[in-house]
Design a protein that fits this description.
single chain; about 5% strand; globular
Length: about 375
């Protein structure tokens, strides 16, 4: 019990995470009950499932925030193999929803393996590049080998297909390589290859091309590809400064498709206005700033890269999601971390942030030990 409530924990970070998650539960119910009744005849269908996942995620958060993070170094290769296995199982036996085969049914639960692969790859990349510090400036020996594994993972994810997740993993990979100390010329080369891969993926299917074209002028494609974005615009415009009131959204009344998942930010904007938006952005900003500071203070190269990877994975998802619902970026199907409905996303995000909290705890413990030694010297 003493370990659980240790003074070395960053309680401000932990409190922010849970505050945002509980806010997400409120918004999932507010945005989903009409859609739930339309689909299954039960107003509480989605929130009940999300509460179950929240309970599981909370237990896992408590465990992982107290579990020493250096252990994950030993698990990096098994996690890579598990990632490949899960993604192959999705290709062979995956459940198709909205023309995408991204899920596996395991008993009463439906999981999205690519969500778990995100944190697995961060652990793998942090372990590999932290062990290559002596020759990280050599491209063939230091930088390239882990990227071959990343390409295999991206290829399997694109079989689903899931361009949004593939792109987020690609960006986090680039950031981990950057923070590991790779040469600028190598980063430029990798950026060029990454942009080329994104362009290839984005133009390899008609529906992805339609999304890319329609987000620039959704009103030209108002009857099809632009419909959801236009309804999102209406929701955001309707909110104003303080919103129309919690639970009072008009757009969730079957105008905005799936308002509890990728477009939940639109409902937040409509019901709570700019005030609600600022609350959400402030919470994410705290997590981002805290994560960067934790990574910078960590003396263990593995822990530092792990902290940066987790932090920027969350940040990238936030940018992708909010960029999509506001029309600044194409729609990618990326959920809003800790807020959007979705058990796999909630579980993986909370476990990832619990690992970040454990790195923060380790940093504080080392600092306190250092201060105690100085006082006794």
């Amino acid at each position: 019990m003493k370990q659980l409530f240790s003074k070395n924990h960053d309680w401000f970070l932990i409190g922010t995470i849970f505050l945002l998650t509980i806010f997400g539960l409120v918004m999932v119910f507010s945005s989903s009950y009409v859609w739930a009744f339309y689909q299954v005849g039960d107003y509480y269908f989605f929130i009940q499932r999300q509460l179950i996942w929240f309970g599981i995620a909370t237990v896992m958060f408590i465990i992982f925030m107290n579990f020493s993070y250096p252990f994950y170094r030993k698990m990096s290769m098994p996690l890579v193999l598990l990632s490949i296995l899960l993604l192959v199982l999705v290709v062979l036996f995956g459940v198709t929803v909205n023309h995408a085969q991204r899920w596996l049914d395991i008993g009463p639960f439906r999981i999205q393996p690519s969500e778990f692969v995100k944190i697995f790859m961060i652990i793998y990349l942090a372990q590999v590049y932290s062990s290559k510090q002596a020759y990280i400036n050599k491209f063939i020996k230091g930088v390239l080998p882990p990227l071959i594994v990343v390409c295999v993972i991206l290829g399997l994810i694109m079989k689903q297909p899931d361009l949004g997740t593939a792109t987020s993993i690609l960006l986090v990979t680039g950031l981990i390589v950057f923070f590991s100390g790779a040469k600028v010329v190598h980063l430029i080369l990798l950026s060029s290859v990454g942009i080329g891969m994104f362009a290839l993926f984005a133009t390899s299917a008609d529906y992805r091309m339609a999304r890319l074209i329609s987000y620039r002028d959704p009103f030209e494609y108002a009857a099809k590809e632009g419909y959801q974005l236009i309804q999102s615009y209406v929701a955001i415009a309707h909110g104003g400064l303080s919103g129309v009131g919690l639970g009072q959204s008009v757009q969730k009344l079957m105008y905005l498709p799936e308002p509890h998942t990728d477009f939940i930010f639109s409902i937040i904007s409509e019901e709570l206005g700019i005030i609600g938006v600022l609350f959400v952005l402030t919470c994410y900003s705290i997590i981002l700033v805290k994560g960067v500071i934790i990574g910078a203070k960590c003396k263990n190269p593995f822990g530092s890269l792990l902290a940066y990877g987790i932090t920027f994975q969350v940040a990238i998802q936030v940018v992708f999601n909010i960029g999509a619902v506001t029309g600044l970026l194409p729609i990618t199907g990326i959920p809003l971390p800790l807020i959007s409905n979705g058990g796999s996303s909630l579980l993986v995000t909370m476990v990832s942030l619990a690992i970040l909290a454990n790195i923060a705890k380790s940093n504080r413990k080392q600092q306190r030990n250092k201060e105690d030694l100085l006082q006794t010297a």
